[in-house]
Amino acid sequence: MPADEEDALYVLTAVLLTPAQFPSVLGDDYPEVCAVLGLEPFAEGYGLVLGQDGAGARWTVVSEDVTLVACAIAAWDCGMGYDLSPGDDSVVAVVPGWPLSLAVAAPGLPEPHDPAPDGEQTGDWTVLCPPDTSRWGPAQRRLGADEIALQWTRWRAQVQDSVEFVEAGEEPDSEVRRVLAEVRAYVEAPPPPGRIRSAFASGEARTLRADGPGWSVVARTDDIAFVLLDEAPGEVRPVGRGRELPQLLAALDDIAVRPAA
After folding, report:
1. pTM, whole model, 2 decimals?
2. Distance separating alpha carbons of residues 75 and 137, to the nearest angstrom
3. What whole-number distance in Å separates Cα of residue 45 and Cα of residue 202?
């Protein structure tokens, strides 16, 4: 907790940390992201509340009240006010720092900064900090996949329908074929929760997201897929529907985790 426990936390934002929705910049799946934050990967998940104390220090409050945090996020997304104040009985951890970069700060407070340990702190003092995305790597690859999922129409408009899908029987002698082979393997041996996620899209379609060691895939069940690789900085490689992709995407959607209704 902040040194003065009576000092209020000025909430700036909140994010969900569940198998179906989590800050993918921090990891490829739900257990991996929980490990980064020092949390147990409980199926119910958590809500992360990011704010500043009265001195401007950054703090992340971890709450078990996922519904409360989800309601606040939904209200904010609609431009409505919502006083997010997790009850003490729901708070499982208060961690110094933020796991994500924020471009905002609480008005009237000093600039956001990392808190220093007080005299009562013992042991290691670890402060959360956002991954370094100044160079291409796993974090930036996952951020790129997030952007494609959010801006699907814009990215899809740049791709011609003639893109060919790699056939299932072909040897994985290229990076995109290797990725597709690993995605297919998920159908036979489901990966950790969150490696495959399914979200709402327009019409009857779903937006699929799959991640693995060194790669991310974003697809729509009624359309094509995009592949991003750690080994190909800044490149977005489209994969056409062909004969195999529709069945593969349907199989992935069957085993994907989905946000609560």
Report:
1. 0.88
2. 33
3. 27
pLDDT tens per residue, range 191-234: 999 999 999 998 889 999 999 999 999 999 999 999 999 999 99
- Predicted confidence (pLDDT) per residue in 71-114, tens digit: 999 999 898 888 898 888 999 999 999 999 998 889 999 999 99
DSSP secondary structure letter of residue 90: G
Backbone angles phi, psi at 252, to 5 degrees: -65, -40
Structure tokens at 124: 């290691």
